[in-house]
Amino acid sequence: MTSRLYYTDPSCRRFDATVTRVFEHQGRPAVTLDRTAFYPSSGGQPFDTGRLGGTDVVETIDEGDEVVHVLSSGLTAGSKVSGEIDWARRFDHMQQHTGQHILSGAFETLFENLTVGFHMGAEVSTIDLARDATPGDIERGVDEANRIVWEDRPVAIRFVSKAEAASLSLRKEPQREGTLRLIDISGFDLCACGGTHVDRTGSIGLIAVLGVERMRGGSRLTFVCGARALRALRTYRDVVSGSVRALSVLPGELPAAIERLQEESKELRKQAKGFQEKLAEREGVRLAAAAPEFHGVRVVVEVLDGWDVAGLKGLAAAATSSARACAVLVTAAAPVSIVIACSPTVPIDANVTLQQLTQRFGGRGGGKPGLAQGGGLAAAGPEVAGAARTLIESTLAG
Ligand SMILES: [Zn+2]
Question: What is the pLDDT of residues 180-189, one digit of tens each?
Fold first, then answer.
């Protein structure tokens, strides 16, 4: 059985211990100790890392009565070792975890809205509230939580029997039997918990809720405490100042400025579409007039850049309605897009011609005898265009 130093002294960073067992955990060297300050993952709080006997502790696991230390290289059974936990990582966990107690306590005190889930991530943490919380509720809850932080209240560890616990008003019903470890945030919150916490609420610094989403009838709050809150503030500052510079507006004007840009770009897209349609109409007529006549049909075969498929269709329609014509329009670079159109009296099936081309060059597409379109043909535009001209002229000649 490992004696867990963090139970009574969560501020313990360095300790001496004896290696009680040496083994492999999933192919990595591992040991148990007679005593440890390393916290194993449990209750939503991630494990500690650090140094032990000159090697790295890469993971700490709770296994019944024992704490398993997974190492980067092996140690000897029975040896005396010194351990030191990565304090920056642990202190961060303590800030987030104590902040969670206070945040959960605030929502229970103010709104009787219980916390039913807690997860501490590497960047942000979440609590799940049983009921929906309005934006106003969340602001009030966060204000109350920070008031408790700034009052710098003591956070004490108390051990009580289950019977004693029944007479206390705990925030949530304890799950385990026997002696209970209570975290007592003076005059505010009392909760059974095996994790590590700061010893005064002031050490949390700040609790900030970054987002909220609806979850199974309740609300999931994403929050950060302490140094993470400072990091989040810096990130937001950089994002806002970058956007403000790009748009030349004040921070408060950003949402309206973005909305305005979206409106403008929608309007411009509409205008561009209108211009393209007009241009396609003129250009299609011009192409048909300039095309050579073959067996009484104007054969328009062009490789064109700068047009989308809708534009090519407009061009082809204008060409084949202004003259007795067959039009094949392809984009320049492989894989090419292609539009084929024929006037009603021309003895060419646009769709059949397209299928012959996709059989040869790959890609896909379809359509009707008068109009077909395809894409993904794996050849350059001029090669596809040349093949199309040969197909059409041999059909007309036949
Ligand atoms: Zn806790």
Answer: 999 999 999 9
